[in-house]
Amino acid sequence: DVKVTQSSRYLVKRTGEKVFLECVQDMDHENMFWYRQDPGLGLRLIYFSYDVKMKEKGDIPEGYSVSREKKERFSLILESASTNQTSMYLCASSLPRQAHEQYFGPGTRLTVT
Amino acid sequence: AQSVTQLGSHVSVSEGALVLLRCNYSSSVPPYLFWYVQYPNQGLQLLLKYTTGATLVKGINGFEAEFKKSETSFHLTKPSAHMSDAAEYFCAVSRYSSASKIIFGSGTRLSIRP
Questions:
Q1: B51-67 as b/e, with b when 16 or more CB fall inside 10 Å?
Q2: Residue B70 contacts by C-beta under 8 Å, 6 or more apart in sequence?
């Protein structure tokens, strides 16, 4: 079974803090994704990566950056957290030609106060 | 551009009743369509997918969906709801199987009444 793990289930940070969300997958997938999930808005893609050190912006990249130094790990960085970044963050991975079949982690619920 | 619209943010059915979750898509090219399910406190998992071929696709846990090009729909059904079906369901679309990303709908929360 593919396993995607996220470093924290719940996280509380203060406005202006730098926040790191970590995601690790154990199936040697090339593609990795970061989404945020908000009620009524579904999932919105923040960034994705199709290989080590490669990344592309998704639909809502503003205020976020990512890092992929190793194939199995994809980090989402909030340079200066703001209250409007309070959300559920989901990480996913997939094989390169099966991007529709994504395997998701359990999510990190981030609250910025 | 592609998009999906899920009709009804919350659907409630009685245990044993028919489940029908509606999804309409917009795509300028033949779409690939998917349903994902998110159980409480878990990530999403793929329920079923339509790529090519048979328009009626079967997924896990007794769910199925039918691709209707003329109606631009991909509704999800299950003949008899079970309490364990309570979850949030997301319809999604992509252009082709190797696309780098998929577009998710806003989700429908399914509640099951005893």
A1: eeeeeebebeeebbbeb
A2: none
Among B44, B97, B107, whose Cβ lies nearest the Cβ of A97?
A: B97
Given this model, what pLDDT does residue A107 score?
Answer: 94
B40 and chain A: CB distance < 8 Å anywhere? no
pLDDT tens-digit profile of B63-113?
Answer: 999 999 999 999 999 999 999 999 999 999 987 654 567 889 999 999 999
Supply the DSSP symbol for B61: G
More confident residue, A97 or B82: B82
Interface contact B97, partner A, CB < 8 A: yes
C-alpha distances (whole Å) from B52 to each of B31, B69, B78, B100 are 9, 12, 22, 18
Q: How close does chain B come to A17, measured CA to CA in Å?
A: 26
- Residue B59: phi, psi to the nearest 5? -120, -160
Torsion of CA B4, B5, B8, B12, to 10 degrees: -20
Please give, one letter per residue, the 3-state secondary structure of B50-98: ECCCCCEEECHHHCEEEEEHHHCEEEEEECCCCHHHCEEEEEEEECCCC
pLDDT tens digit sequence for B11-57: 999 999 999 999 999 887 778 899 999 998 888 999 999 988 888 99
